[in-house]
Amino acid sequence: MVKPYQQLRLRWKKSDWEKFSTLQIRLISAKNGKTTVSFHQENLADADMREQMKEHWESVIEQLKTHVC
User: Fold this and answer.
1) Cα–Cα dist 37/21, whole Å
2) Which residues contact 1 (CB under 8 A, 6 or more apart)?
3) Separation of alpha carbons 51 and 55, rounded Å
4) How is the beta sheet containing 21-29 ordered, strand by strand?
5) HSE of 38 in the Cβ direction (CA atoms, 13 Å)?
6) Do the beta carbons of residue 47 and residue 55 sit within 8 Å?
7) What 3-state DSSP class applies to 4?
8) Across the strands, what pairs with 15?
9) What is the pLDDT of residue 31?
10) Average pLDDT along the chain, 69 residues, taken 10 residues at a time
11) Which residues are CB-neighbours of 8 under 8 A, at least 6 positions away?
12) Which residues does 20 contact at the CB level (< 8 Å), separation at least 6?
């Protein structure tokens, strides 16, 4: 599902995973002219995988910041 300039929802997996997860990437605009990028991932195997992916997406956000700022 795609909502232009707002949301992308897709099936996604790392190359070593057996199953796909559902990944949502949202762009949330604020009144101050800034935008929040939000990652939400469903259907992960367990708490450890959720923590790994949280760290992964935080790293992605940091990389985005270096390209945008």
Assistant:
1) 19
2) 7, 8, 9, 10
3) 6
4) 2-3, 7-12, 21-29, 35-42
5) 13
6) no
7) coil
8) none
9) 86
10) 92 92 94 89 94 94 85
11) 1, 2, 24, 25, 26
12) 11, 12, 13, 43
* Residue 68 DSSP one-character state: H
Beta partners for residue 10, in sequence order? 23
For residue 39, what are its two tokens?
């990652």
- pLDDT of the residue at 64: 87
Count of positions (residues) in the chain: 69
Residue 1 has what pLDDT?
A: 86
Asked if residue 44 lies in contact with residue 56, where contact means CB atoms within 8 angstroms, the answer is no
Category of 5 on φ-ψ map: left (φ > 0), alpha (ψ -120 to 50) or beta: left
**Under 8 Å between Cβ of 24 and 9:** yes
The model's pTM:
0.80
d(CA 31, CA 60): 24
